[in-house]
Amino acid sequence: MAVTGLRIGVVGGSIAGCAMAIAGARAGADVTVHERSDGALQDRGFGIVIPPPLHQELVVGGYLGADMPTAPVATRVWLARAPGRRSARELARQQAPVAACNWGLLWRALRANAQDGTYHRGRPVGSVGRTASGGALIRTADGEREYDVVVGADGHRSVTRDALAPGVRPVPAGYLVWRGTIPAAALRDHPGQLAMLESSWVTLGFPGGHGVFYLIPGAAGGSRLLAYAIYASPPAADVPASTAYVRHIAEEHFPAEWADIVARGEHTSQVLHPVADFVVPRAAEPPFLLAGDAASVTRPHTASGAVKALQDALCLERSLRASSSAAEALRRYADERSAEGARLVGLGRRLGRALVENTPDWPAMGPAEVEALSRAALDGDGSYLYGSVQR
Q1: 9-37: string of b/e by CB count within 10 Å (b at 16+)?
Q2: Rounded Cα distance, 268 and 182, in Å
Q3: Using only C-alpha atoms, what is the Rg of the chain?
Q4: How would you list the strands of the sheet with 7-11, edge to edge?
Q5: Residue 43 φ then ψ, to 5°
Q6: Where are the chain's structural domains?
Q7: Is the separation of the CB atoms in 359 and 208 below 8 Å?
Q8: Does domain 7-41+105-170+276-348 have CATH number 3.60.10.10?
Q9: 3-class SS of residue 104
Q10: Pseudo-torsion of CA 307, 312, 318, 322, nearest 10°?
Q11: Measured at the alpha carbon of residue 272, what is the angle toward residues 19 and 384, in degrees to the nearest 5?
Q12: Under DSSP, is residue 306 helix (H, G, I), strand (E, B) or coil?
């Protein structure tokens, strides 16, 4: 018999927190979300890609509305700069369907469907703890609240993780990722690139790194955006590691048409951060459960940040429905999600070595070499980002 009537406190009200709130409410729990920010989060408009089957499952399950805008494409195109020239050379195409979306629109859709619970803004959680009866406490400036289960959905600096796995810290990869969005109108003078992005997402290889490009819906019904993530080593010690440095990377390594888009396109958002990863030994130990980046951070090559958080939520709902107690539900959750977090961290490290740390001679590659690179990096694992190479 499914356990119902639980009091679940969620630390963090971002994508992971809202998804976990929906999961708890759908399984019959009384859910309260504690979000540290006192403002709305929808302006964080970077790009996310979701496997189409997961997107459909979330729509059918009531997590997302069918009207949430996405930009689905079915193909991945691999490019590099042609040797001795500034033009692009196509290396290969893979069947790799994704549903690209805007972070802010995804959060807004989840937030709208988390209305059954209580959502507190501007309530930073200072710490969590255990009660004498086996429950959990959330401590804020307003005092303490007691719950049967506390879900840590509070990101890589999680205070909940400090209670469950205090020794776990991020492990630096040694390289950086530049993320940005540019109005799709910046491609109006590049019709060939726009046409490619209408049906594909693009991986552009260069010495010491690569970039990923795809279209996403604009916020609040606005014009579409070109989203990118560019991975490379930090610049030399005498050059600042800044968001502006991505323009230098583009000018130095990209085909002329792609360099023009990135280096001179007017950005709507830009951020730079080091790449790192970690995973906790167990994603739950009663009365605490970790979700999203609080449980594990994978290198972004796996495109599994938001995806894993959404899968965490689906797992929590299944576990609650299949269990007769909170402790049993958390054990079920931990058995499934701990293993998945470790798998994704391992996959991200292999992809990082193949695509950044030990980049191949990109211009010399063709379909066979791209397929071999993908298979070697996957090492028998699976990823929705890597499909069959089209000959």
Answers
A1: bbbbbbbbbbbbbbbbbbbebbbbbbbbe
A2: 6
A3: 21
A4: 118-120, 30-34, 7-11, 149-152, 288-290, 284-285
A5: -80, -5
A6: 7-41+105-170+276-348, 71-103+172-275+354-390
A7: yes
A8: no
A9: helix
A10: 160
A11: 50
A12: helix
Q: What would the two tokens of residue 131 be?
A: 């009660």
Cα separation values, 112 from 107, 108, 122, 211, 217, Å: 9, 6, 18, 33, 18
Per the DSSP assignment, residues forming a β-bridge with 262 are: none
Do 54 and 63 touch, CB atoms closer than 8 A? no
Q: What percent of the chain has pLDDT over 70?
A: 97
Q: Hey, is 176 helix, strand or coil? A: strand
Of the candidates 59, 386, 82, 126, which has an alpha carbon nearest to the alpha carbon of residue 258? 82
Q: Are 146 and 137 in contact (CB under 8 A)?
A: yes
Rounded CA separation 294/160 (Å): 8
CATH tag for 71-103+172-275+354-390 (out of 3.30.9.60, 3.40.980.10, 2.30.30.30, 3.20.20.140):
3.30.9.60
For the chain, how many residues are written? Answer: 391
pLDDT in tens, 18-62: 999 999 999 999 999 999 987 666 565 689 999 999 999 999 999
Region 72-85: mean pLDDT is 94
Name the pTM for this structure: 0.95
Residue 127 amino acid letter = S
Q: Are 172 and 275 in contact (CB under 8 A)?
A: yes
Please name which of 62, 293, 82, 252 lies closest in space to residue 168, comparing C-alpha atoms.
293
Nearest-10 Cα torsion for 291, 293, 299, 303: 60
- Per-residue pLDDT tens over the stretch 187-199: 999 999 999 999 9
Distance CA 62, CA 258 (A): 39
Q: What is the pLDDT of residue 42?
A: 54
- Confidence tier at 391 by pLDDT (50, 70, 90): low
